Amino acid sequence: MSELTSCYISNLYDLDQTIARELFTGKTYPWEVLDDIEDFILKLGPTLDPTIFTEISEHVWVAKSVTIAKTATINGPCIIDENTEVRPGAFIRGKAIVGKDCVVGNSTELKNVVLFNHVQVPHYNYVGDSVLGFFSHMGAGSITSNVKSDKTHVHVKSASEGEIDTGRKKFGAMLGDHVEVGCNSVLNPGTVIGRNTNIYPVSCVRGVVPADSIWKNEQPHEIISKKM
Fold first, then answer.
1. Per-residue DSSP letter, 78
2. Are 180 and 212 in contact (CB under 8 A)?
3. How do residues 9-38 score in pLDDT, each as one tens digit?
4. Which residues are CB-neighbours of 182 under 8 A, at least 6 positions away?
5. Residue pLDDT, tens place only, 73-123
């Protein structure tokens, strides 16, 4: 499979593992959903089963089995599916679809995102303009950087096949199913990580990372004795 083909929705995600399956219909790349998340929530929310979901505030639909800490902040539009935990200090800024059995943790911020079922962003994470696949996990302090410093369009870059101009100024990261991101890593704008891939802690990641691989930053270091 080529690197750019690996960025196809069909090669990254099990669409049976999200309430937002229809959001991806007719699209090729996952970043194509980012402009449609808000409208999709506003359309889907009122149709949700009232025996399962409650609109706890304007345009915020939350399953009754969800646990929300008193100090968490949730702005609409937003949908949070069953058995998810929203921990103290979490900040959901809006335009967020959070799947079943997820964890949105302490001081974690979400904005314009889709989290598939069983996603964990449990400690000090920023996730913006991103899609996180089934059972993906971001270690403590890892973030998606979603805007380039020069504010130009984000390109998805392949080392061997060139690049795709996404036409977007805001684009965080697309994580396939079962991706593990190590603590304190930065996923630069336009990062796409294939299924079953691990990112080592304290990594600076950009471009397309193939499925079933390990990203490891080699950082030389020196240990000097304090005894002279």
1. E
2. no
3. 999 999 999 999 999 999 999 999 999 999
4. 139, 142, 198, 199, 200, 201, 202, 203
5. 999 999 999 999 999 999 999 999 999 999 999 999 999 999 999 999 999
Q: What percent of the chain has pLDDT over 90?
A: 89
So what's the pLDDT on residue 35? 97
Contact 25, 190 (CB under 8 A): no
- pTM for the full model? 0.94
Q: What is d(CA 94, CA 137) in angstroms, rounded to the nearest whole number? A: 21
Average pLDDT of the chain to the nearest whole number: 95
* Phi, psi (deg, nearest 5) at residue 50: -70, -15
Q: Which helix (H) or strand (E) holds 42?
A: helix 37-44
Q: How far apart are CA 63 and CA 35, in angstroms?
A: 24
DSSP assignment letter at 75 = P
The number of CA neighbours under 13 Å toward the Cβ of 51 is 0
Q: Which amino acid is at 29?
A: Y
Percent of the chain with pLDDT over 70: 98
Radius of gyration in angstroms for the set of CA atoms belonging to the chain, rounded to a whole number: 18
Nearest partner of 6 among 170, 172, 197, 137, judged by Cα: 197
Q: How far is CA 154 from CA 27, 61, 147, 207, in A?
A: 18, 32, 8, 10
Which pairing describes strands 85-86 and 103-106: parallel, antiparallel, or unpaired? parallel
| Residue 67 neighbours by CB distance under 10 Å | 11
Beta-carbon contacts of residue 161 (< 8 Å; ≥ 6 apart)? 2, 3, 4
